[in-house]
Amino acid sequence: MCNSRYINPFTDFGFKKIFGEEANKDILIDFLNSVLPAEDQIYELNYKSTEHLPSNDTDRKAIYDLYCENELGEKFIVELQRAEQTHFKDRTIYYSSFPIQEQAKKGKGWDYELKAVYVISIMDFIFDENDEDFHHIVELKNQKNKVFYDKLKFVYLELPKFRKQENELKSNFDKWLYLLNNITTFEQMPTVLKEHIFRKVLKIAEYTALPKQDQEIYDEDLKRFRDYINTLDTRERRGAQKKAIETAKKILKMGLSIEQVAEATGLSIDEVKQLSENK
Known about the structure:
- The chain is of the alpha/beta class.
- The chain has two domains: 199 residues, no CATH class; 69 residues, no CATH class.
- The protein contains eight helices and eight strands, in the order H-H-E-E-E-E-E-H-E-E-E-H-H-H-H-H.
- Strands 1-4-5-6-8-7 form a six-stranded mixed β-sheet, with helices on both faces. A two-stranded antiparallel sheet has the order 2-3.
- Helix 3 links the parallel strand 5 and strand 6.
């Protein structure tokens, strides 16, 4: 059972309810225009099939969260990434290859002219701790740092790095990220989100306003989401524990006291004593 007023946008149901419905595509257009450069603004979008089959049986099938096309025929892949995964950047590059290949025209008359492709990744994790920027726009550039090809762009949003509070929100971009990060904590509509588009999002995302069948679907999806997060947390704790133990073993060999090792690694004195006895 949902225990917040608004549905979680990081669940599959929540993300597609907010951004993936034809009747409310103005929400997705507004969001994309807030994260894309000024020269790439969108006026119209059409949703397309999110499943893309490879050209041969040995390639992997790609299934996007959202796949759209604007009035110019340009392609937009919108992906929600809930946790870091191996070869994450490689995956986004691989995904971009499908809307490029599908533009090929049969016959000898095609001159290889392509429409632009954009991959927008909304990430609920940090992939670069050393870079304080959280809004990354990536293009193909040459050795002089000049854009070599302007029809392929990748946008990465590291949401956990966005820490502005309600009284610090200035732009539409700020408000979108604040909403995504905090919507499940809202007990009422924040006054700062006064624009029509945000009111519309909150109206759509209100749990009690969903049809009973959608509530049941969301409840199941939310349970899977929480189980997934719990699994990740457990894995992270085990990894941290293992690293602390390895560090403690090395420090013990240097002759530090059990108390010093415990303080340095975060392990308990009893845990360090056991390691000391077993070494």
